[in-house]
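Review box. Two proteins, two foldings.
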Amino acid sequence: MVMVLYVALRVFLIPYQVDGASMAPDLRDGERVFVYRLAYTHLDSGALLDALPWGDRDSGDVVSASAPERGDIIVLRPPTTSGKPYIKRVIGLPGERVTFREGLVFIDGQALTEPYIEGAITSCFHGPWCSLTVPDDAVFVLGDNRQDSTDSRFFGTITYDHIIGQAVFSNWPLETIGPVEHPDYDVTSPPT
């Protein structure tokens, strides 16, 4: 019974250890979280049901989880040569224009209030990723510790197929045990 429970949990949740300070102060170097693998999974029931003799291709999706939301902390396979997964926060969503100005992140011309940033400003060094529209099936990600993060400012957007899952629960050290918090956002007019 214990083995069945263990295998079932591993299908849905995988452990991940934060490596580095890019998500400080919310997630610290060495902190351990569980990552929900199926958070953004989409299974086409047509392909599955066609394999069954009684299958009906028009019956809809078997599983259709939500798309990533702004503020989700995700674990991803970076489009760089690094073999290690990264952990970052989703900032820009498909179709949104992400720009950097005056130390702030702007979404479609509106300043993004980021309560998890402790006084740091967000800079971008005039590269191709400093002002872009996020393509379909992709997200723009940033580390919370903007001065110490390799993220979409350096490697561009992340397609959904590079997302391993969503960090949902911190399990080590003891003082951090609990759900990974998801911020409420306030998007305001740009400063004049």
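Next protein.
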Amino acid sequence: MDLQHLNVKVFVASPGPIDLEPFIGIFNNWIQRHLTDDLLIDVADYRHTVNGPGVVLIGHAANYSLDQTDGRLGLLYSHKAALMGSIADRLCETMRATLLACRRLEHENGLKFSGSEVQLTFNDRLLAPNTPKTLEALRPTLQEPLERLYGQAAYTLNRISGDPRERLTLSVKSVTPITVTTLLQNLAAERMPA
């Protein structure tokens, strides 16, 4: 399976209402300061859309959005361009980019993210249809990057929806609380030989 278009969403820790207007300026500042490896292009304001994309930072290879889908606010990183390496390498890279953006927002705005739940979406219905068979085929491939992400913490991996018309979206939940900083440290740690 040559999966390329990967999305990762990390949810905010506080469930209360959050004003997204300041993030328009923050994302514009990221463009001006060239704060990512990607070429950042523009910011789009979709705050008027209920349960929609919120505020979107559009990049050449990826988009970042403070996404409100299903009424759950989180940072959604949507990688659009081709990635090198194995699926596990691609997933680690998209998770790293997502978590770096989360940490940057925590420092710049005080918004807090929970590392206890990550949502993975495979944005290719042909290569990764939303079926139990696809999840079982991907499970061995996902094991290494998810174990790197969560370290020694136990986690669960489940499909969000059984509707085959939906994209394959997986919920990865740690059984114990974990921070974004810890997840980044886990990803950065060298893999130890077995």
